[in-house]
Amino acid sequence: MTDARALSAGAAPWAGRILHVDLTSGRVETLSTLEHARHYLGGRGLAARLALDLIPPGMGPYDAESPLFFMTGALVGTPAPSAGRVTICGLSPQAYPHEWYTRSNLGGHWGAELKYAGYDGLIVTGRAPHPVTLHIDNDGATLREAGDLWGMGLIATQARLREALGPETRVLAIGPAGEHLCRYAVIATGTESAAGQGGFGAVMGSKRLKAIAVRGRGGVAVAHPREMLRRARLISEAALARYGRGMPDENPRSDAYGQRPAPCTYLCPRACGDFYQRVPGVVHPEQTYAGQVFCCAPRLAGGEWLGARFAPEAAFELAQMSNDLGLNHWELTFGLGPWLLACQARGELRALDGQALNLQEPTFWAEMMDRIAHRRGWGDLLAEGGPRVADILGVGQDLIGDYYPAYGQSSHWDGHGSFPSPHFPYWLVTSLQWALDTRDPIGGGHGYTTNIFGLVRAVSPEDAAAQAQLRRVGERLYGSAAAVDPRGGYEGKAEPAVRHQNRGALKDSLGVCDNIFPMLTDPAREDYLVAVDGVEGWRLEHHLFEAACDWDLSAEDLDRAGDRIFTAERLLAIRNWGRDRATDETIIAYLQRPEGSVNPYLGERVTLDVEAYRALLDACYALRGWDPATARPTEATLRALGLEGWGEGTAVAGTAPSRRGDRPVAPTTLP
Amino acid sequence: MTERRRPAGRLRAYPERCQGCQACVVACSLVHEGRVEPVHARLRVIVDPLRAAHEVRVCHQCRRAPCAAACPRGAITYVSAAGGYWAVDASACDGCGLCVAACPFHVLMLAFDGDTIRLCDTCQGAPECVASCPAGALEWEERS
């Protein structure tokens, strides 16, 4: 094996080691990153490869040995714009019906700090005998008792640790929701940078790990420092020119509230969130709140689905309360909330334990979130997440499919349900990504919707020249004019689905943000196509990578790595949970509901043609080299991707579905 | 008392514009150390993610530099090239830390291994930190 230190000191951006901390024994050891870095890069990719070794069939998220991965992308710590991202993954309490392996992703400064401390990632196994915090620096890792922090909010926990350890300490933490094993508890840093989907906060809570504090005093090598800096700057400027700064819509902007643009991620030029330094409370008028707001939080202000709209201040307050409790408000806003309302509208579930569900009132939301995060009273039930609540109560099970496309996660860029965007035919692409994935496919989904749907919306349907140019963009990016054409229907949708799915895996493994990469289109350019430094959009991630790393890896090699990583995740799903085509087709029932918005070119809501959709699935499998009957990679595909051997023994038909889920074993208070 | 000098310019920080992204710190360490090593950057941005109020510490290239005055070995000297700037002679520095204590702006840092200090050399009048900032929070101000 290559010597890690020699390599790290040379011309590649890896620290060379992954830290493994076992909380049961307190044992700390390291693994080599470099054994797998060439094929799996970092972040999500390395985690997928290690998960094949560390997650055997039958393991559940709350088993002591269940690993929780915190993996930095390969470019994290280098000057690459937005390269601060960390993939957190493992067995997911939120996933439904199987608590299977999936991933989440967050920004902040924690990942870069971990790299400067000398580690590319962290794997936590075991369960501490009492609440602990984990402290990592260049001298190694130590566990400290954290009884005084247990029960504390996520924000206060970070403030306390920064105060104790210095202002340059970076902290990941859980709130009460994680401690009490709410199935949609987050792990977060700052106020709203969270690994939101998956419920990994509950896994961390089950391990009695309250927080991970990191201070790094080392560095990261870059193969060509000056060239790296030059390319990073050009791409950073291009991203600012393309996307602008701050959130484009919906956020209440007010100087009085101390609003300022604030990036969630290390080295992000865009600052696509806004930070408000002082917003008066509505539920608690005596308080003021500070925090960051991205796309999700403003939607707590309600809208049509709620039958009410809260003041922006109330939505902000609820978002910050949710952040402090460590709850994933995507589930509350797009899943559980709308489902509860739909049940109410049908005359079911008017009250829980005799208490009326008054979802039109911010004060009720505040109480509900607090109950959920502490599993207090009826909050214990709602902490299970929409699909399991329906199963447990035997109420509104048929309504779950209106809001949850698949796998226990609520609507997200699929054109239906509570997130009715994009319109047909663009949701064909994102829904195909849902079909093959283990969660909402947001990395790949953002890549496609930002670049293509964003471009289409910027162009007039009456502008014939622009329409012709859209078709040329389709040809250039996906080899098919129909792939981008608003009237393209079912034609040419498999290629972008798979291409962006693989790019999502690559991006999550390099540690860059899907609100910047891939940067493919720009309505302000004549040909609508981005090129920076003479390099086309698809190759910009590689343009950065080759300046950071002098290993001989081409842009095509990186694309193949994305494919390999996605396929490795599929192999795990087949081996441990019997993933098959029927599971991939779960989403079809959801898509047969009316789409949520109208394609202005067609003037109607399009109904799914199931046969045509199945043909698109066939095309996705063909592009991936998977058998369309079984949705499994063929032996030839596995050989081509260097995954030989992992396809064998994949007949294991996984664990029984966990609809209710075993009640977790961790105590919620100190022993 | 160190002789009064006239460095060509100085960095000026506008913390209210700073987004806390650290691009300046990363660029500074990369060009000076050949690696990204934020603790060795010649400026610091102390990010408060809970308030979005960030502290930006930059070398002011003082005319009468307290760091140079404090150094018992004369390791901090005025270089007249590129319009003039203060610089460290690493071979003369023994890491005593007196300059660190003397800096009124808390910018100077001892290397992590405790041997020499790192001092902003203004990149000879073309500071990389300024070029890297996406938010206009750092400016290079030439002295007239």
What's this model, at a glance?
The complex is a heterodimer of chains A (671) and B (144). With 671 residues, chain A is α+β, with helices and mostly antiparallel strands.
Q: Give the neighbour order of strands across the main sheet of chain A.
A: 2-1-6-3-4-5
Mean pLDDT of chain A: 92
Main β-sheet of chain B: number of strands, strand sense, barrel status?
2 strands, antiparallel
Q: Tell me the strand percentage band of chain A.
A: 5-15%
Would you give the CATH topology of the largest domain in chain A? Answer: Aldehyde Ferredoxin Oxidoreductase,  A, domain 1
Terminal residue distance of chain A: 45 Å
CATH class placement of chain B? Alpha Beta
Which features characterize this protein?
heterodimer; A: 671 residues; alpha+beta; Aldehyde Ferredoxin Oxidoreductase,  A, domain 1; Aldehyde Ferredoxin Oxidoreductase Protein, subunit A, domain 2; Aldehyde Ferredoxin Oxidoreductase Protein, subunit A, domain 3; 3 domains; 6-stranded mixed beta sheet; 24 helices; 24 strands; B: 144 residues; 4 helices; 9 strands; 18% helix
Q: How does this model look, in words?
A:
- The complex is a heterodimer of chains A (671) and B (144).
- Chain A is α+β, with helices and mostly antiparallel strands and 671 residues long.
- In chain A, the strands form 8 sheets. A 6-stranded mixed sheet of chain A has the order 2-1-6-3-4-5, with helices on both faces. A 4-stranded mixed sheet of chain A has the order 8-7-12-9. Chain A has a 3-stranded antiparallel sheet with strand order 14-15-16, with helices on one face.
- The longest helix of chain A has 23 residues, at 555-577.
- The two termini of chain A are 45 Å apart.
- Chain B has a single domain, classed as Alpha-Beta Plaits, CATH 3.30.70.20.
- Chain B has helices at residues 23-33, 66-70, 98-102, 128-132; strands spanning 9-13, 35-36, 44-46, 55-57, 76-79, 85-88, 109-110, 117-118, 138-142.
- Chain B is globular and about 40 Å long.
- Chain B has a two-stranded antiparallel sheet. In chain B, strands 3-4 form a two-stranded antiparallel ribbon.
- Chain B contains 4 helices and 9 strands.
- Strand 13 (220-221) of chain A pairs antiparallel with strand 2 (35-36) of chain B, so a sheet runs across the interface.
